[in-house]
Design a protein that fits this description.
The chain is 47% helix and 13% strand. The longest helix is centred in the N-terminal third of the chain and has 34 residues. With 1333 residues, the chain is an alpha+beta fold. The chain is elongated, with a radius of gyration of 50 Å. The chain is built from 49 helices and 34 strands. This is RING-type E3 ubiquitin transferase. InterPro entries: ARM-like, ARM-type_fold, ARM_LIN, ARM_LIN_2nd, E3_ubiquitin-ligase_LIN, LIN_N, RING-Ubox_PUB, Ubox_domain. Keywords: Transferase, WD repeat.
């Protein structure tokens, strides 16, 4: 053959470009190509290092195909090329390079790489990847090989020498050679020769494909095609040695080639010869597919082969007594001739021919059934099987065993059976009568039918020579060697098996043949139902397994899954595949080798075929990513089904669903787990998973444990539901027998379960865990603790310690000692930071209070003790609303149980080894890990706080040595109020002893500063302040002040008003100026000076919401200023129609003292009212809608602004010849009214109760008080001669005196928000800032 007769470079480029363009346009086709070739990579290659770059290259290629950006496509293609060239070449990389070059528009490179695929893997390339390309470019060169094969095959079948001189047949119309007639007469030697011939044929085709691929590459690479010569093809060499034919060079058969091709007999034009026989089946024939598949690739799932393309497989069992045994040899299958270039509908002649062939096939199938049925009947029931003078009456013979009845029992249906036989029938799960198929109401066998037994005995006495012989003695069965070797020996007690084994195998083979060969779906479905019946009723399961596990049979079942829509058929098919898969791993490998098979089974499950879950469960280890199958919803539906509604299978569907769901959990990321948990909660499937805790399968129990742990960790609110339904005895049984990994899952589950928000419930569950195990749970945990991993030890130790505390703490307990020692060791083990954090969090959770979501309440509860109870109250309120409405008695009982548990737990922890735990917690407080530090801090605070209520056994000293300085350091340095409060709570425990107070002396000043900051937030800080200075007559050291700064504003006249707001200070001056100063850092640094009032600014007031400053002036206006970070801006001016001497404001009104009598109330909408018109008001204060007025006549009134009612707190008086004694200053604080009067009566400041106006105290100063400022601890009195006195608000004693100047009066004062800075404005224009030293 010359090159002119072969393909030219343009033809090669045309065909390869067609294939590449089709692949680039079909994403699913590309994915299947990649999957097929990847599975066929040689095992010698390093799979791990090879698959990763191939996957990356495939993904990058997909990106290049899908992108619309040319630059992105170009860079992606370059990356693909670099990736593939950097690793060894193989079939997958060649295919990817071909597609890449095709997208790059480099057709020659694409064609060369595509031909490389035929070099690396010719079998996959011609049969599965590109059969049409093989037919176009390769097949013409292989006609001699095909002809030679046909000649040799004919010689073997006819025992005549091959005729190599004949002309080649017309392969365009090549038809399969009918071989059924010869098939039945074939000897074992002929079958072996045909198999060896097929092996050699496959090897020769592979070698020639490689040679031709290299030749076609040379055609593309050589510019002068005429210089090329035809390739040297390999031919089939037939060897003979010593009269025996051998094929030594082809001993190895490709196992993968037989696994998934169905091993269907014949040769197709793609060069594939497919035998349907294996070691035990001798059916061989030749099949030729035409080129009708040129335009499309072969499908990637097993396809049903037409009955017209191969003959029916006959049984290899031979019944020597029956002349009908070889009747199948008469069957022939006619095959159509399909022209290679047929592209239109078939002619009428072809259709008639095909119908005749089909009719012949169906008629022969019915003949086979008719011929086989009498054999079965005779072997079991025929009187001809009886040897003797007289056959017994049929009523004396058991219909199951075909033997004379020995112990007859008559069922409710009226049928009589041998007791052993019918009992075995019932023991196998049947509940019907074998003959009538009626459902039995009672499966308990009745008493022996003695009447019939006596009749049989009487008949035997009359016919002593009559014996009923079992059919197995009549028939001599010759089985295949393989079947014989695999057939289990049947027990002599299995009477049903002894009676039916022979007929079953023969009939089953015929049914399997129908399943694999019939193109009529109904026939195949009927075959499935019959196979299912054989499987359920026969006792030769190993025999059936052997026949059904063949790949071509598995493919037949898969075809049913793809094509049938009958739920009964699909259920039976799934049942059979599951049963076989549970016994034979080869079935699993066969099913998972093609991705579409697995997807088909998953689709059936998603469509509601519940039984499919069992098959997916069996396939789970071979499925790369279960999550991608989108089965969560279907699995939850199976889990929720009642067991009685489910099909009985080798594995319970619910068991399979629970285990599969757990597998999906393990492969999900955090968001995926959250999504599945939400689905379980919304679908109300958690209760069904809880039921699996009591399952018979240990694997299901452990899987359900893992699922429930995930649920409680993701959404702890389901914990109560789980606790209500959980059956712990089976779980505790698994705890004793599972592996260490599974054992920890169970311990984690139990630990999560005792984090309920009710202490009494937790203790009930602890009792169940302790008492309901088959062995001692505590001993099991103790043994496990000694061998567990470091990260697991804290959880185990925590559970063990809780179980030990169920009884009153004893002096010694090995469980307690081991548990606490483990926790301390984990805290100190810096090599395992995870174990450190787990140990600290475990100790913190041992306090015993939890939210409904299982989060520890220890921190929130300690904050409540420290006086910051807002977070704790919010958590408790939320729990009560979401969980239950607790009665008062119930809440009291819970709190009592929680306190008792907390005391016991704290006692054993702090007492262990004289406070050794405090030392470990102190080391943990030095950790830089935030989780570790936080857990140790809360745990240490809790245990130190509990020392207040525990008897002192010497551990307080140990705690003080280890932790006091650490807590003092935290209190001084922390900026978080909660951390300060917690450390303060711990310090309050230490200062109850003189040693603790003494050790804090060096840090006293910093601690006092922190206490002053906290005294507004928590009463504990105030109590601590009192403790530090308990018994001292003077508190000057505590409240001593020093001048921070003084600014001179004399150029603006007197400082008439000063006020603080956040980090700013505002002052009003007599020339109408308002100044804005910094209030923190560099105090009294001028920010802004503004003068919009024309006369003196007499008063300032601030509204926090919105942040606004109000100024009152003698120019008869009031201005509203917006406060920003940089400056203030006037946003509104109110005409007050009178001078404003003092001003108080709310959101709706302002009240000011006019030049005349009374108090004017100005509504912001412009309405004025005059209140208390009979009095000349000197000062006033507004608190909660009530206006307090101090008047010139020494009287004090209270006015309710809402009702405008007036009450007199103190009546007026005139002294010293009618000269008035006014109330100079008025302040309201803490339910008391402080009023400054003249000092002539010896009590310049009176303290009155706002509730009943009674006098509760006074400040006996001799100075003339003009203004006052009050903080939570101190009272500041500004006097006429420039002096400021500081008095204790608690004890009403003078603490200190400040001198602001000698020739001035104190006109105004204010205290900043932190109560650390006092601001004083004087008549000589000075503003002073005094701070607590």
């Amino acid at each position: 053959m010359t090159t002119s007769a072969a393909a030219t470079s343009s033809q090669i480029l045309h065909h390869t470009a067609t294939f590449v363009s089709e692949a680039l346009s079909q994403a699913e086709f590309r994915r299947r190509l990649f999957s097929v070739l990847r599975h066929k990579l040689p095992p010698s290659l390093d799979q791990t290092s090879l698959i990763r770059p191939l996957n990356l290259a495939a993904q990058t290629l997909e990106n290049a195909i899908s992108t619309t950006s040319s630059s992105v496509r170009l860079s992606s293609l370059r990356l693909v090329e670099n990736l593939l060239h950097s690793h060894p070449e193989n079939s997958v990389s060649s295919l990817l390079l071909s597609l890449s070059y095709g997208l790059w528009r480099r057709p020659i490179s694409a064609a060369l790489c595509l031909l490389d695929v035929f070099c690396f893997d010719p079998l996959s390339a011609r049969c599965e990847m590109a059969p049409s390309l093989f037919e176009e470019l390769f097949l013409i060169h292989l006609l001699p090989v095909l002809h030679e094969f046909n000649q040799r095959r004919s010689q073997i079948l006819s025992n005549s020498p091959p005729n190599y001189d004949d002309d080649y047949p017309n392969y365009d119309s090549l038809a399969a050679i009918p071989s059924t007639k010869s098939l039945s007469k074939m000897s074992d030697e002929q079958a072996s020769e045909l198999k060896r011939l097929e092996t050699e044929y496959e090897e020769v085709l592979d070698e020639n494909c490689r040679v031709l691929a290299k030749y076609l590459k040379e055609v593309l690479e050589n510019e002068d095609e005429n210089r090329l010569t035809s390739p040297a093809l390999t031919t089939m060499k037939y060897k003979e040695e010593a009269g025996e034919e051998t094929f030594d060079e082809f001993d190895k058969i490709d196992e993968v080639r037989r696994m998934r091709t169905g091993e269907l007999a014949g040769i197709s034009l793609n060069g594939r010869y497919n035998p349907i026989w294996t070691e035990g089946d001798r059916s061989i024939e030749l099949i030729n597919n035409t080129s009708s598949s040129k335009s499309r690739s072969l499908p990637f799932y097993p396809q049903r082969v037409s009955s017209e393309t191969f003959s029916d497989q006959i049984s290899s069992w031979k019944l020597t007594t029956s002349p009908q045994t070889n009747s199948d040899s008469e069957l022939e299958s006619s095959l159509d001739d399909n022209p290679a270039d047929s592209s239109s509908a078939e002619s009428e002649a072809e259709i008639e021919e095909r119908n005749r062939n089909m009719a012949l096939f169906e008629s022969r199938q019915s003949q086979i059934q008719k011929q086989e049925q009498p054999v079965s009947a005779k072997s079991s029931r025929s009187p001809d099987n009886v040897i003797g003078k007289l056959a017994p009456p049929k009523d004396f013979v058991c219909p199951i065993t075909s033997n004379l009845l020995d112990d007859p029992v008559t069922l409710e249906t009226g049928q009589t059976y041998e007791r052993r036989a019918i009992q075995e029938w019932l023991d196998r799960g049947n509940s019907t009568c074998p003959i009538t198929r009626q459902e039995l109401q009672n499966t308990q066998l009745p008493k022996t039918n003695y009447v019939l037994k006596r009749l049989i005995g009487s008949w035997q006495e009359q016919n002593p020579g009559s014996v009923l012989v079992n059919q197995s003695e009549n028939l001599c069965i010759e089985a295949d060697p393989v079947v014989k070797s695999e057939m289990p020996s049947t027990s002599p007690n299995s009477v049903i098996s002894q009676a039916t084994i022979e007929g079953t195998v023969s009939e089953l083979r015929h049914v399997i043949s129908n399943l694999c060969t019939s193109e009529i779906l109904k026939e195949s479905e009927t075959a499935v139902l019959r196979i299912e019946r054989f499987w359920r009723e026969a006792s030769i399961e190993q025999d059936i397994q052997t026949m059904l596990s063949k790949p071509q049979v598995i493919n037949g079942f898969v075809e049913i899954l793809f094509n049938s829509v009958d739920p009964k058929i699909l259920r039976a098919t799934i049942f059979l595949l599951s049963e076989m898969g549970s016994r034979d791993k080869v079935v699993i490998q066969t099913l998972t080798q093609v991705d579409s098979d697995v997807e088909c089974i998953a689709t059936l499950l998603r469509n509601g075929l519940v039984e499919s879950v069992v098959l997916i469960y069996l396939l789970r280890t071979s499925i790369l990513n279960l999550r991608e199958l989108d089965l969560v919803g279907s699995l939850l539906a199976v889990i929720k089904k009642k067991e009685r509604d489910l099909f009985k299978m080798c594995v319970k569907p619910k068991t399979a669903a629970v285990i599969l769901l757990e597998h999906i959990f393990q492969s999900c990321n955090e968001s995926g787990v959250t999504s599945i948990v939400n689905s379980m909660i919304s679908e109300k499937a958690i209760e069904s998973v809880v039921d699996s805790l009591g399952a018979e399968s240990s694997e299901e129990r452990v899987a359900s444990v893992r699922l429930l742990v995930k649920c409680m960790q993701e959404d702890g609110k389901c914990r109560n539901n789980i606790a209500d339904k959980a059956e712990l005895a089976p779980v505790l049984k698994s705890l004793m027998s599972t592996s260490d990994g599974e054992r920890f899952e169970i311990v984690q589950f139990l630990s999560e379960l005792v984090k309920l928000n009710r202490r009494t419930f937790n203790e009930q569950f602890l009792h169940i865990i302790k008492d309901e195990g088959p062995l001692s749970t505590m001993h099991t945990l103790l043994v496990y603790l000694q061998t567990a991993l470091e990260d697991q030890c804290p959880t185990i130790a925590g559970l063990l310690l809780q179980l030990d505390l169920l009884t009153e703490p004893r002096k010694m307990s090995i469980y307690r000692e081991e548990a606490i020692d483990t926790l301390i060791a984990c805290l100190r083990n810096t090599v395992f930071p995870g174990a450190q954090v787990a140990a600290a969090e475990t100790i913190m959770s041992l306090q015993g209070r939890f939210t409904t979501s299982g989060k520890s309440l220890t921190r929130a509860f300690l904050l409540k003790r420290a006086g910051l109870d807002k977070s704790y109250n919010n958590l408790v309120r939320r729990d009560q609303l979401s969980n239950f409405s607790a009665e008062a008695e119930e809440t009291l009982e819970e709190e009592k149980a929680a306190e008792n548990w907390e005391r016991k737990m704290a006692s054993v922890l702090v007492s262990h080894e004289f406070g050794l735990l405090f030392e470990a917690l102190s080391e943990g407080l030095k950790s830089t890990d935030a989780e570790m530090y936080s857990a140790c801090f809360v745990s240490a605070t809790w245990l130190v706080d509990m020392l207040k209520v525990l008897p002192d056994t010497g551990v307080r000293g140990a705690a003080r040595v280890c932790l006091l300085k650490r807590f003092a350091s935290i209190f001084k340095s922390s900026r978080d109020t909660e951390d300060k409060a917690l450390s303060l709570l711990a310090l309050s425990s230490f200062i109850q002893e003189p040693e603790g107070l003494h050790e804090l002396t060096s840090s006293l000043k910093d601690i006092l500063k922190g206490l002053r900051e906290l005294k507004k937030s928590t009463p504990l800080a105030f109590e601590m302040l009192k403790t530090f200075f308990e018994g001292q007559d003077s508190s000057a050291d505590l409240w001593s002040h020093k001048q921070l700064v003084q600014v001179d504003c004399s150029e603006n006249g007197e400082v008439l008003s000063v006020i603080c707001f956040k980090d700013k200070i505002f002052s009003g001056h007599s020339d109408g100026t308002i100044k804005v100063w910094t209030g923190k850092g560099s105090i009294l640094h001028l920010i802004q000076e503004i003068r919009e009032h024309t006369k003196a600014v007499t008063c300032l007031a601030v509204l926090p919401e919105p942040e606004s400053l109000y100024s009152g002036s003698l120019d008869r206006t009031s201005r509203v200023w917006s406060i920003s970070d940089e400056a203030i801006h006037c946003i509104q001016v109110h005409e007050m129609k009178d001078q404003v001497h003092n001003l108080v404001v709310t959101n709706s009104v302002s009240c000011f003292i006019p030049h005349g009598s009374g108090v004017k109330v100005h509504s912001w909408n412009g309405v004025y009212k005059l209140l208390n018109p009979s009095k000349y008001v000197k000062c006033m204060a507004l608190v909660q809608g009530k206006l307090y007025c101090g008047c010139n006549d020494n009287s004090i009134q209270e006015i309710d602004l809402a009702t405008e009612t007036l009450s007199t707190i103190q009546g007026g008086s005139r002294k010293l010849l009618g000269k008035a004694s006014p109330v100079h200053a008025l302040q309201i604080y803490g339910g008391h009214l402080y009023a400054a009067f003249s000092s002539l009566d010896g009590s310049a400041v009176k303290i009155l109760s706002t509730s009943d106006y009674s006098m509760v105290g006074s400040l006996a100063t001799t100075l003339e008080v003009r203004v006052m400022a009050i903080s939570s601890e101190l009272i500041y009195l500004g006097c006429k001669k420039g002096t400021v006195e500081i008095w204790s608000r608690e004890k009403w004693n003078r603490i200190d005196t400040l001198q602001t100047g000698s020739n001035c009066r104190v006109l105004c004062m204010a205290v900043d928000g932190n109560e650390e800075v006092l601001l004083v404005g004087t008549s000589d224009g000075q503003i002073q800032a005094w701070g607590l030293s």
